[in-house]
Amino acid sequence: MAGASGLLGRALAAGLAARGDAVTPLGRAALAAPAALANALAGCDAVVNLAGEPLLARRWTAARRQAFAASRVGVTERLVAALAAAQPRPGVLVCASAVGYYGDRGDEPLAEDATPGRGFLAQLCQAWESAAQAAEPFGVRVARLRLGVVLAPNGGALAQMLPAFRLGLGGPIGNGRQYLPWIHLADVRGVFLATLDDARYRGPFNLAAPQAVTSR
Question: From CA 205, how far away is CA 102, in angstroms rounded?
Answer without folding.
Answer: 12
